[in-house]
Design brief:
Elements (H helix, E strand, L loop, with lengths): L3 H18 L4 H9 L2 H12 L27 H19 L11 H12 L8 H7 L21 E4 L3 H12 L4 E4 L8 H4 L23
Parallel strand pairs: 1-2
Helix pairs in contact: 3-4, 3-5, 5-6
Length: 215
């Protein structure tokens, strides 16, 4: 049985062949006419490396309420300029041209998202944006070992998620520690509390530690 990588390569090859066999690219033009223009502008930055697509006349208006803001509040001629540029960039990509910024920095991701929505996005959202886009995660920096005074020991109060994270990082730095917990089990408030009927809660297995992604 072929593995996932073989199937992906086969899919990519079939996709490229289909694109090459299409002479007029009507399907792509139709898709771009229905696409969200601010998203296309952000796509162009990543594909071409040209920041002008999120500057000046290309900056969209702020998204209002639950509206998709597909036009970005931009004049028709500017929208068409973005669509035509996206069409050309995608055709080149399908023909084998690589994406210029394959792994955007966290700073660029936050900036692009902010321009797309028309508002400032906190830097802390970068990891979530990176995960949503399926980009490589940037692990937390390692903790260098530090000189520890004789007899020094850190005290961690509580064996909840934060306490356990603190213990891991202290251990990485070579610092002795003691955890005190008033309950008889680990987990903190997530062990103690229950949330019946909270259908909007995120399953815990979707979370991971920055110092051990998906471990």
């Amino acid at each position: 049985m072929p593995d996932g990588r073989c199937l992906q390569r086969q899919h990519d090859r079939q996709w490229q062949e289909a694109v090459q066999q299409t002479t007029d690219h009507d399907w792509l033009s139709a898709a771009l006419e229905a696409a969200n223009v601010p998203t296309l502008a952000c796509l162009l930055v990543q594909m071409t490396g040209d920041r002008r697509w999120i500057e000046g006349k290309f900056v969209p208006s702020r998204t209002r309420g639950m509206d998709d803001n597909d036009s970005g509040g931009l004049p028709d001629d500017v929208q068409q300029e973005i669509r035509h540029a996206a069409h050309a960039a995608l055709i080149r990509h399908f023909a084998g041209e690589p994406v210029v910024i394959a792994d955007p920095s966290d700073e660029l991701l936050v900036e692009i998202m902010g321009v797309s929505l028309g508002e400032t996005i906190p830097a802390s959202y970068a990891a979530m944006i990176r995960a949503d886009l399926g980009l490589p995660e940037q692990e937390a920096p390692g903790v260098p070992a530090v000189p520890v005074p004789p007899g020094f020991r850190a005290l961690i109060i509580g064996a909840g998620i934060s306490g356990l994270c603190a213990a891991v990082r202290l251990q990485s730095a070579g610092i002795p520690y003691t955890i005190v917990e008033r309950r008889g089990r680990l987990g903190g408030v997530w062990m103690e509390n229950r949330y019946p009927g909270a259908a909007c809660d995120v399953p815990s297995h979707l979370y991971s530690f920055s110092f051990a992604p998906h471990d």
